[in-house]
Amino acid sequence: MGTYKNVITRLDEKLELLESEIEDALIKAEQGIKVTKVALEELRNEIVSCNFESKAKEIHFFKNVKPQVFSKLIYFVKLFNIESKKPRSSNKSQAKYLNSHIDKLQIYFHDNLEFYHYYRRGATLLDEQYFLRGKSDIRLHPETFHFFTDEQFSTSHDSTVATILAYDMLIIHLKKETSKLENTNGMETESPSNQKQSKLFWTNSKTDLIELIYALHSSGAINNGTADIKEMATAYEQIFNIDLGNFYHTFIELRSRKSNNTKFLDLLKDVLINRMKDSDG
After folding, report:
1. 226, 177, 219: which is closest to 62 by C-alpha?
2. Residue 81's pLDDT is what?
3. Please, what sign has the CA dihedral across residues 103, 106, 110, 112?
4. DSSP labels for 178-225?
């Protein structure tokens, strides 16, 4: 057990390439479906062929690991369906169409509000019921992705977590697309992030900020490690009034540095230690 980390790393690398190399949303979604289905099948083969060492490890896998991959499959399937039926008429009608889908996605959160709050606040009390296999009760949660589940590779709520993550990503994506359409149309956007612009500006290099974002993402400090890297990058762009461009490619360049590929993080540690020493004095 544990090689699933390699599966996720390979998937992330493939999706990063898709993000940077393919503009067309339909083609990107179609390719995304293919690579995530392969990764999910690889995960399944590994899990059904060996036993978890403990209940805690099984819970961790079905609460945090599987949903990372399954959420991307749900995201790309929904994105493909939305994009393939999008009207090719005016920007106004396209924006209306996308907003109607945002509303539909948000209904899911209302319909699953109790579990949504349980998951978002990082609760653990019911984890054995939700994230151990063999605990399913169709009467308690009838609207799950049963067409893609089986007893050896499913728990009662791992697909619900995956759907929450996927719909979060979709809503962010659709809001961005709607904002572009409305701006092109000369309409005012009502996004909360645009109502009050941050007065903070990132004055180091973009590479430094991307290094920091990836470190935070890897640490699991945001949303218990389930936050989407794209969502985090967008948030930092808004906070620090900066366009990070193709941050996936920048990260690939960071990884390929011959020496000291965590230069900015090392600097942060040094300056904080020095500040603490100065405070002591």
Report:
1. 226
2. 96
3. positive
4. HHHHHHHTTPPP--HHHHS-------S-HHHHHHHHHHHHHHT-SGGG
In sign, the C-alpha dihedral spanning 180, 181, 187, 191 is negative
Distance in angstroms (rounded) separating the CA atoms of residues 9 and 265:
21
Which pTM does this prediction carry? 0.70
- Rounded (5°) CA angle 147-151-154: 70
**Which phi-psi region, left, alpha or beta, contains residue 155 (left: φ > 0; alpha: ψ -120 to 50)?**
beta
Distance CA 7, CA 24 (A): 26
| Closest C-alpha to 175, from 63, 278, 82 | 82
Alpha-carbon distance 89 to 51, whole Å?
A: 54
Cα separation, 164 vs 264, in Å, equals: 33
Give the residue with greater pLDDT, 112 vs 146.
Answer: 112
